[in-house]
Amino acid sequence: MAYVITDNCVKDxxxxxxxxTDCIHPKKDEPEFEAATQLYIDPxxxxxxxxxxxxxxxxxxxxxEDLPEDKxxxxxxNATYFGK
Length: 84
Ligand code: SF4
Ligand code: SF4
Known about the structure:
Elements: E1 3-5, H1 14-18, E2 24-25, E3 40-41, H2 52-55, E4 61-63, H3 73-81
Antiparallel strand pairs: 1-4, 2-3
Bound molecules: iron/sulfur cluster (SF4) (2 copies).
């Protein structure tokens, strides 16, 4: 299981600031940031600590098991961003 970001993301990096494994990308200092419509979580870097969920103020970040039915596709979209 991993945590997953969905399309409500406003790219404010509040989750990036609390993530202990630096598995949320792209970040502001990365070239992909501007074009990205949201941030993504690398499922292989995520340790399921849950710190990012309360940090997110736009209700866009979920544990995979808690994803709303209409956001299930983002499980794959997050992994695909990292080529997984
Ligand atoms: S659950 Fe923890 S490790 Fe995974 S993305 Fe959130 S803060 Fe990072
Ligand atoms: S805290 Fe939420 S809205 Fe902000 S970048 Fe992370 S997932 Fe996106």
